[in-house]
DNA sequence: GATTAGCACTCAACGAGTCCGAGTGCCAGT
DNA sequence: ACTGGCACTCGGACTCGTTGAGTGCTAATC
């Protein structure tokens, strides 16, 4: 009853189930996979695997399907696969001529969803301390203004503020000039100090503090984290293995950025390379029938790309695709 | 066989079918709706309505359901409804404290999807000629730069360009200064002329033409049109009336912005107030089982909000919600 | 001791047969 | 022009046997 063979059986079950989406039985295994033993032996192994919680039967007299725990073992120890050459090429050509950060992210997410046939998610490169390059104020009607902050690392933040009382043009223009003088090229504590001084100077416009705080947060790494996704139709496509009523909550979770962001953060903490959450491991009811494969990218690996699909998914393939896209993104973003 | 009563019957069928999602029969109608006639009479009316193509039977000995043509008549002549007071309030409170154009759009689309329980779509306010307020260039590595254009109407456009050969810092800074001088406050033809002169001036940096063209398109109204949506889970939710395999193509069409944009444009041409496309009227295979209710907003009604759902949807309710959100958006965006 | 062959057993899936009733169309009567 | 009544249709639900994939167990074999 070598453990090795038992693992081979588990691997065969996972691969079989993923391929056919039907419970796999001992006989079929013995015949199609070259395991070199009879179906009876496989049955014995299966009994043990079931006892250990790696596989389960939907009902008596059906084949076995992997449990979350089974997939976990498979992913951790049994999977291995290279990325098809065609995919590698696709990544290069598809992403090479993006004009813009948005464009890069947009293309990546589409590409990844096509390669994996899953829902792809890309978290916007999470922002880090960066010097301020330019602050611009634009009047919007009489009572509001738009604050635009361009950072040295090519990020652009914008936000509207109320002006409170009417500000004369002259004061407005002076504010723009002065704040740029105070902020330009500065970061972190130095920036904060300079802006504090500016906002606190006598006779200052009443909305100076508001602007200052926007500029500071922008320099500190931007306002909010965002996630974009693509390929949601893959959830609904025939043979996804998800019931119609399972997919509505998943779509909700996706639109509910917060949930997804928290999950991705947790996964980032995992560390190395590609990390995988399987079914209930997502700790989220709506996602309990799905798995997520994610990899960090960008400098200090602060952002994440991932693919989300039914627990019954092609782990080796998705892991390879996610890894490849993450690598490529790192290269593009780091320049 | 007054036409009036026949229309009343059609209205009753539409309302009944929308409510229950089941074919409605003559008897049930006679009992629940106060039409003042017997089921036999209704049956006669139904026979005529069917002959005229307004209703159909899924199979003999089932009730009738409205056809696209039936819904069309209903929408054009028979529907009328006010927006629930609670919804009106929701719109005010929900949208009032948005900080930013993105935020407004984001909130609107969520709100609308909640009010209608459909997929909501909002096209970004489509841009119009506007003066340039500031052009900023940011180096990205040695070979690329980011061009940021802030327009007087509070739009921010950005795009990356390759620098070609190395540009000395000094030339770079001079370019920034000069282009701002040329562009600031200018629009349209004047802007184009000024930038042409700038780009053509002797000893100019090699990438000047690229920057100039970006600035011109930005001033002309921005780069691309975009659509955001929310509430896709409403498609999958139980009782949406859409089959599992119908919804995948719909999700694809949504992500395929182009399709949606073209459709919205067509609808905008329709003109007045709220316009509706029912089923096959969308002229799009993937959407043949869905309807879209859309309304224009913004100055010169150039942009659109809409709700998309199964043909079997609550038209009066959705129309009211879409109209209300469009009105509100107009007010916010026009300031 | 591990593997195999054989056998009895279980149970979802399938198809055939049956019944039920909502819904229809039509006709004759008011 | 409307209504009551009646015969007819046909999908949906329900039952019930059959089938076959798949199992667990035991005894024989390597």
UniProtKB/TrEMBL annotation, chains A, B:
Keyword list, A-Z: Repressor, Stress response, Transcription, Transcription regulation
Domain of life: Bacteria
Domain Heat-inducible transcription repressor HrcA C-terminal, residue spans: 103-319
Start and end residues of each HTH deoR-type domain: 26-62
InterPro entries attached to this UniProt entry: DeoR_HTH, GAF-like_dom_sf, HrcA, HrcA_C, WH-like_DNA-bd_sf, WH_DNA-bd_sf, WHTH_transcript_rep_HrcA_IDD
Functional note: Negative regulator of class I heat shock genes (grpE-dnaK-dnaJ and groELS operons). Prevents heat-shock induction of these operons.
Family classification: Belongs to the HrcA family.
Name the record gives this protein: Heat-inducible transcription repressor HrcA
Species for this entry: Demequina sediminis
Gene encoding the protein: hrcA
């Amino acid at each position: 009853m070598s453990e090795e063979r038992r693992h081979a059986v588990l691997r065969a079950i996972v691969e079989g189930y993923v391929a056919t989406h039907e419970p796999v039985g001992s006989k079929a295994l013995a015949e199609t996979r070259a395991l070199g033993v009879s179906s009876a032996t496989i049955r014995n192994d299966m009994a043990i695997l079931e006892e250990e919680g790696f596989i389960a039967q939907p009902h008596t007299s059906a084949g076995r399907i992997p449990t979350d725990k089974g997939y976990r073992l498979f992913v951790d120890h049994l999977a291995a696969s290279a990325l098809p050459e065609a995919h590698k090429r696709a990544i290069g050509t598809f992403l090479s001529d993006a004009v813009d950060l948005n464009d890069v992210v947009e293309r990546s997410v589409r590409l990844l969803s096509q390669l994996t046939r899953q829902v792809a998610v890309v978290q916007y490169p999470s922002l880090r301390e960066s010097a301020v390059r330019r602050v611009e104020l634009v009047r919007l009607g009489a009572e509001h203004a738009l604050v635009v902050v361009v950072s040295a690392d090519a990020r652009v933040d914008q936000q509207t503020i109320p002006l409170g009382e009417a500000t004369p043009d002259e004061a407005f223009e002076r504010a723009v000039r002065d704040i740029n003088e105070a902020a330009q090229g500065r970061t972190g504590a130095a920036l904060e100090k300079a802006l504090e001084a500016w906002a606190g100077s006598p006779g200052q416009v009443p909305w100076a503090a508001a602007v200052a705080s926007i500029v500071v947060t922008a320099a500190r790494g931007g306002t909010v984290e965002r996630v974009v996704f693509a390929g949601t139709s893959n959830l609904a496509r025939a043979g996804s293995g998800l019931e119609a009523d399972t997919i509505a909550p998943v779509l909700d979770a996706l639109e509910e950025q917060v949930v997804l962001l928290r999950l991705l953060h947790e996964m980032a903490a995992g560390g190395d390379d590609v990390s995988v959450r399987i079914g209930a491991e997502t700790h989220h009811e709506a996602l309990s029938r799905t798995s997520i494969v994610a990899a960090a990218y960008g400098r200090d690996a602060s952002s994440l790309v991932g693919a989300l699909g039914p627990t019954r998914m092609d782990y080796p393939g998705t892991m390879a695709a996610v890894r490849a896209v993450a690598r490529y993104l790192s290269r593009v973003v780091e320049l």
